[in-house]
Amino acid sequence: MSNSDEEPQNLQNLQNFSLPWPNYSKYFKVQRVIEDMFFYKKLEIKCLICVGTKVLKVDTRSNSNLRKHLNVSTLDHLLQRFIVSAGIPFSIIENPVLKEIIERGFPNKKLMSRPTLMKRIEIEYKSLMNQIKTDMSNCFHIATTADAWSIFKKSYIGITASWINDDLSRTTCLLAIKRLQGIHTYEVLAKAMDSVYVTFDITDKIDFSTTDNGSNFVKSFKVYGNLFDDMDGNENQCILEDNDDNETNQVEAIDLNVLVNGIDIEDKSLPYSLPRHHRCSAHTLNLISTTDLKKALLDGSYKKQSRSTFSKCYALWNTQGRSTKSADAIKKCCGRYLKTPNATRWNSLFDAVVCLNKLLKLNESKFRLLMDELVIVRFNRNDIDFLTNYQIVMEPLSISLDILQGENNMFFGYLVPTIVQLTSKYQQMTQSHTLLKCVQPLLTAILDGIQKRFDDLLNDKFLIIAALSHPSFKTAWIKDEVKKQLAVGYFKKACLDEFNETATQNEDNTFEIETVEKNVEDPSSNFFQFWSQTFDDDHHYDSILNKEMDQYLGTSPTKDLNSLNILPTIKKVFIKFNTPLPSSASVERVFSVGGATMTKKRSTQKIVCDFSPLATISS
Q: PANTHER family of this UniProt entry (predicted)?
């Protein structure tokens, strides 16, 4: 038998061969059989924990070699993970105290050197990058989030990618943290984002990119982004409005920013290509709770009570932060420190008010004595009632913000139902007789802010289909029957398009196979292709799709996404329209202080500046 015949035989034997020790199978993989004797075998194996191409040799009569290697490699791997995840300098591996600690538990263990550690991290980084590229190459729909951050006189841009797997779970990974040099102009941001998308070869796969409402981000997508919906080739339309004014539809909108910069949207030679843009909905809600609520101050009654109450609140919060003596007094009286507002943390003002209300409710008289001790004007009954009503009014907004900042179990279809429900709750509050009259301007300001900032999104075709294709919502969030029928119509159209696309792909594959098998002497046999298409087939396919859609829409909403596994077309529609994220929270967490990704020590490391392996591996 030739060597070429022996190789497939050996490969087949390896596929059927496993280590005689089942507990080690998840750590080692057999590469080849070196010696195959009747009573034992000598094997060449690869450790799945170690990086690189180094292999081990083992005799099936003893696993001592594996035990020894596993102890050493596992320790090295754990040390590497610890250093990367904690952001500790690489020099820690050469610290004498750490060496002494390791020697106590592993007397014969020699710690790897700093260069070895850096090489291992670099190898793991490259392996991780290749794995991410492979995973994304198998995806049809990808969403990204991006955010820029400045800290310690250095600027960065972070970009994450997210997609939905076939089991309907979401995978999110950090693609890059890049240094930004100079001013963050829209061109600089566009160049940074485009370079990352090109590196991972996902430019044509990204459905939406979510960023905050920063003007430079918005402008970069206006100039270089894809402004058109891939459905019907038209820009997203307001589908829930009955406006059939033909003259209005013929008006062409021109971006003045584009004209000023001398860039034509239809110019195919634009240097950068960005996907469609979605403004972070959590950031938009935060703008409502901050910027838009200032309009409530135009009402004299609300302005007077609000400033009187919050001046006392801020006096408490500030004295806790500025004086250790005051902080100790608060801790002694309340058993805890007060939550304080933070300019960079959304919902922080609401959380601080909730904390105050809770402490006041537990022991109001004791809290008044505390304020006397701190030389702060006491809360009177009007102040306490105002804080209680403020919490009631702001709670739905806070809950909505927390919902939309989700990641693993968050989908694009959550956005419209969340805003619809939020609007409904505030409309009910306006009819309530239990709220103080002075907080009515607060309600009005919130409703006006929601309408101003979300009115277009509530009528967005893509978002409505995303909501209808999510089993948790379906049509339950649409109360108006006319709007419900319109939305169902667009949902069915999306299902039909997906169904036809799948059918076309299957027909093309079948046609290619049949063409190869047919006799090439009859070139006219493929000319009249309609011979193979019958009305019965079309009717059969339509019946299958209609049955699937009726089954989906005819059942009550459920939180179980696995219900889509028996509905293949709707499952594909769900993945297509729910892959984008409503908020950019996933990338903002990268820059969070809690994650310690951008601390002063880590920002001095050169390896963090571009495509940070540290940040990527630790994420």
A: HAT C-TERMINAL DIMERISATION DOMAIN-CONTAINING PROTEIN, TRANSPOSASE-RELATED
Angle at 577 between CA 571 and CA 581, to 5 degrees: 120
How far is the C-alpha of 129 from the C-alpha of 123, rounded, in Å? 10
Residue 101 pLDDT > 70? yes
CA 437 centroid distance within chain: 40
The boundaries of the domain holding residue 204 are 126-224+594-618
Task: Report yes or no: 49 and 73 within 8 Å, Cβ to Cβ.
Answer: yes
Q: What is the pLDDT of residue 12?
A: 42
Both tokens of 237, joined, read: 């339309």
Higher pLDDT, 23 or 101: 101
**Helices 535-553 and 568-578: angle between axes, nearest 10 degrees:** 60
Kindly state whether residues 397 and 292 are assigned to the same domain: yes
Tell me: do 23 and 146 sit in the same domain: no
For residue 266, pLDDT over 80 is answered with no
Based on the fold, state whether residues 488 and 443 are members of the same structural domain. no
Q: What percent of the chain has pLDDT over 90?
A: 48
Pairwise CA distance, residues 142 & 162, whole Å: 6
Tokens 């919502």 — which residue?
473
Reported confidence tier of residue 233, pLDDT bands at 50, 70, 90: very low
Task: Provide the pLDDT for residue 524.
Answer: 57
Query: Which two structure tokens, joined as six digits, stand for 96?
Result: 């004498």
Helix (H, G, I), strand (E, B) or coil at 179: strand
Residue 362 carries which side chain, given as an amino acid letter? Answer: L
The model's confidence at residue 487, banded by pLDDT at 50, 70 and 90, is: very high
For Cα atoms 541, 544, 546, give the angle at the middle one, nearest 5 degrees. 105
Q: Which two tokens stand for residue 609?
A: 């500046």
Residues 36, 40: Cα–Cα separation, whole Å: 7
Enumerate the β-bridge partners of residue 139. Answer: none
pLDDT recorded at residue 360: 92
Q: Is there a contact between 590 and 615 (Cβ–Cβ < 8 Å)? A: yes
The answer to whether the beta carbons of residues 176 and 158 sit under 8 Å apart is: yes
Confidence of residue 551 (pLDDT cuts 50, 70, 90): very high
DSSP string for 13-61: HHHH---S-GGGTTTEEEEEEEEE-SS-EEEEEEESSS-SS-EEEEETT
CA atoms within 13 A on the CB side of 169: 3
Given the structure tokens 């594996």, which residue do they identify?
66
Count of domains for the chain: 4
- 149: tokens are 């951050």
Specify whether 416 is located in the same domain as 452. Answer: yes
In a domain, 359, yes or no: yes
DSSP string, 202-251: -TTTEEEEEE-S-HHHHHHHHHHB--S-SSTTS---BTT-----HHHHTP
Amino acid 381: pLDDT: 93
For 163, the token pair is 């997609």
* Measured distance between the N- and C-terminal CA atoms of the chain, rounded to whole angstroms: 51
**Band (99; pLDDT cuts 50, 70, 90):** confident
* 513, 456 contact by CB (below 8 A): no
